[in-house]
Amino acid sequence: MKILVAYDKNTSFANVLDTAVKRAAQDNAYVYLVRTCSEDAKADEIAELDHRLNEMMVEVFNKQGIQGETHILIRGLTPGEDVVSFAAEKNVDEIIIGIKKRSRVGKMVFGSTAQFIILESHCPVLSVK
User: Fold this and answer.
1) Which of 31, 106, 114, 126 would staple 110 via disulfide (CB 3.0–4.6 Å)?
2) How far apart are CA 52 and CA 34, in angstroms?
3) CA distances, 90 to each of 48, 50, 86, 87, 109 (Å)
4) Quick one: the chain helix, strand, coil %, rounded to 5?
5) Domains present along the chain, CATH in parentheses
6) Backbone phi, then psi, for 36, in 5-degree steps?
7) Could you give the CA distance from residue 18 to residue 61 in angstroms, rounded to a whole number?
8) Strand ranges for the chain from DSSP E
9) CA gap 120, 31 in Å, rounded
């Protein structure tokens, strides 16, 4: 099994990581830890992000015996398109994303990126808040 975990600094990512570790350990899954980045991102920002992702992979997944790899997606697409496209390319079986806490009315509608991933993905999407 292959799981894609989409990293977003604006969500409570600790819950996403906990859920991803449990799912990956349960299904003996290979994990893709990904983050999208705009084309105009500076090299030092990309390097810092790459370091953070690799650190998460080692500290969170590899210590639990879960294999995986990190990717920074810089393709000129929207974040949702990037995640869905990458998941299809890698033939991922499940995507795990974080969603923000919202008001009662806001709960009726996900953020545009999360909504795009949920509606357009070829595989199941697990949303975690």
Assistant:
1) 114
2) 11
3) 25, 20, 6, 5, 28
4) 45, 20, 35
5) 2-128 (3.40.50.620)
6) -90, 155
7) 10
8) 2-6, 30-36, 68-73, 94-98, 125-128
9) 20
Distance, in Å, from the CA atom of 48 to the CA atom of 107, rounded to the nearest integer, reads 33
122 with 88: CB under 8 angstroms? Answer: yes
Paired residues of 72 in beta bridges: 35
Contact 3, 93 (CB under 8 A): yes
DSSP per position, 92-116: -SEEEEE-----TTGGGS--HHHHH
Radius of gyration of the chain (CA): 14
Query: pLDDT for 77-119, tens place per residue?
Result: 999 999 999 999 999 999 999 887 665 555 555 568 888 999 9
Q: Which residues pair with 33 in a beta bridge?
A: 5, 70
| Report field, pTM of the whole predicted structure over 0.85 | yes
